[in-house]
């Protein structure tokens, strides 16, 4: 007597797994609004065969997450999400306030997520 659950399960199980192994974004990032100095996470999960690598774009440009300064540079978590220890405003090039997207890549192809904006709330006195 759970027809909706039944349909959902059938829908999940009957969907053929793509032989091509093309990457597919299964969790897109969403817009976030964060206070200055607070942590923030932009979610991204992808599947594919072989397992895709995740790269993030900031305002359309590849984001360098390999720098050692983790306090100011966001890091890519193992599942692909982008984590900011402490969001900072600042000059346009350094500010974390931007539009982000994640790109999943493997030998079969590339998939790009929807764009997500990170907005920073200034402290109010």
UniProtKB/TrEMBL annotation:
- Ranges for domain Ig-like come to 23-117
Where does the record place a coiled coil?
none
Q: Which SMART domains match?
A: IG (SM00409), IGc2 (SM00408)
Could you tell me the keywords of this UniProt record? Immunoglobulin domain
- Record flagged with keyword Amino-acid biosynthesis: no
Gene3D superfamilies recorded: Immunoglobulins (2.60.40.10)
Molecular function (Gene Ontology), one example: cell-cell adhesion mediator activity
Q: Which Pfam families match?
A: Ig_3
Q: Which GO terms describe its cellular component?
A: axon; plasma membrane
One GO biological process this protein is involved in is: axon guidance
Q: Which SUPFAM superfamilies match?
A: Immunoglobulin
> What's the protein name?
Roundabout, axon guidance receptor, homolog 4 (Drosophila)
Organism of derivation: Sinocyclocheilus rhinocerous
């Amino acid at each position: 007597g759970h027809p909706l659950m039944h349909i959902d399960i059938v829908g999940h199980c009957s969907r053929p797994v793509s032989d091509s192994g093309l990457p597919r974004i299964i969790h897109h990032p969403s817009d976030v609004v964060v206070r200055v100095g607070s942590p923030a996470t932009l979610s991204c999960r992808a599947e594919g065969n072989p397992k895709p690598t995740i790269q993030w774009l900031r305002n359309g440009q590849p984001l360098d997450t390999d720098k050692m300064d983790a306090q100011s540079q966001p890091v890519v978590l193992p599942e692909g999400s982008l984590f900011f220890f402490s969001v900072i405003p600042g000059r346009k090039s350094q500010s974390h306030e931007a539009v982000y997207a994640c790109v999943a890549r493997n030998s079969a192809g590339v998939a790009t997520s929807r764009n997500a904006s990170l907005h920073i709330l200034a402290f109010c006195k």
